[in-house]
Amino acid sequence: MNTNPKIYVACNFPPEVLALFTTRFGAGYNDTGRVLHTDELIENAQGMDAIVLTATDRLDKTAVERLAPSIKVVCTYSVGNDHLDLDALQAKGIAVLSTPDVLDEACADTAWLLMLGAARRVIEGIDLIRGGTWQGWSPRQLIGRDVWGSRLGILGMGRIGRAIAKRARGFDMAVHYHNRNRLGAELEAGAQYHSSLESLARHSDFLCIACPASPSTRGLVNASILQLLPPDAVVCNISRGDIICDEDLLQALKTGTVAAAGLDVFAGEPNIHPEYRQLPNVFGLPHIGSSTLRTRLAMGELLCSGLQAWFSGGTPSNRVR
Ligand code: DGY
């Protein structure tokens, strides 16, 4: 039991979110306006009971070992935790809290933005408007592909995947999915299960990646999967960039094996593969999946209540196991 835990907020939060922490805890925070170097983060967190960071703050084994012994909890302001060495944190007796559930709907909205934007050639349309080069309506102009009535393949039918699937009903889409484990009928809600990614790919006019990233998903969507997609397919990624093999996707986009891609996440962010910036059939967004104020506040609230539960001897619902 610690009634006044000291928290270090390493992320560059919107003021409304930062206030959630500073009004509830003795909180120090990053006021540099930029992502901290790991050394700075470790230094600033000296003597703290908990730190709050984001997916841009990587804590590998070495960094975890260097964390101050006072730190009992690491909070990540994300649902993904592939930036943290969970084994090293557990070995050091540090609990990890994250932000599941509260961002599902915002991320699902973003997945639809990606699918629609990529399928309907939004980047090329915006270029015409902004560049002042639009010659007027033409029956040949920017012919895209239908989203409605197509087959949606979801890789990773967790809560975000299911929120994406729920929206597909309004578009009269047949939903297919691949997961390690098949869901029960209620959660499946009519979606068709595929026990392999290969089978899912064959049935996906839109392949939407929504699975958590881990070492086993690195490069999972590669040339051998992409070539199984039906002609004119669209690939979307709302999860983590390294699930896609960049070279293979770029090749598929250039040759037309894949018609278009909608990507909110990229390997090596923000230093993305330069060809993603050049290809007209890439609808790219800068990792804004959960970026609405309501969702970002809910993420902050969840971490704060988890911290309060933890330091008063309870069990936070958002503890990463
Ligand atoms: C998440 O919550 O994992 C988002 O991708 C932000 O990192």
Compact description:
This protein is α/β, with parallel strands linked by helices. It has helices spanning 15-24, 38-44, 61-66, 86-91, 104-119, 122-131, 159-168, 185-188, 197-202, 223-226, 246-255, 275-278, 293-311, and strands at residues 6-9, 26-29, 50-53, 73-76, 95-97, 151-155, 174-178, 192-194, 206-209, 234-237, 260-263, 282-284.
Description:
With 321 residues, the chain is α/β, with parallel strands linked by helices. It folds into two domains: 6-102 and 292-311, Rossmann fold (3-Layer(aba) Sandwich); 104-284, NAD(P)-binding Rossmann-like Domain (Rossmann fold). It is 35% helix and 15% strand. The protein contains 13 helices and twelve strands. The chain has helices spanning 15-24, 38-44, 61-66, 86-91, 104-119, 122-131, 159-168, 185-188, 197-202, 223-226, 246-255, 275-278, 293-311; strands at 6-9, 26-29, 50-53, 73-76, 95-97, 151-155, 174-178, 192-194, 206-209, 234-237, 260-263, 282-284. Strands 8-7-6-9-10-11-12 form a seven-stranded parallel sheet. The longest helix is centred in the C-terminal third of the chain and has 19 residues, at 293-311. It is globular, with a radius of gyration of 21 Å. The two termini are 21 Å apart. The chain binds (2R)-2,3-dihydroxypropanoic acid (DGY). Keywords: NAD, Oxidoreductase. InterPro entries: D-isomer_2-hydroxyacid_DH (IPR050223), D-isomer_2_OHA_DH_cat_dom (IPR006139), D-isomer_DH_CS1 (IPR029752), D-isomer_DH_NAD-bd (IPR006140), NAD(P)-bd_dom_sf (IPR036291). Residues 35-320 form the D-isomer specific 2-hydroxyacid dehydrogenase catalytic domain. GO terms for molecular function: glyoxylate reductase (NADPH) activity; hydroxypyruvate reductase [NAD(P)H] activity; NAD binding. This is D-glycerate dehydrogenase.
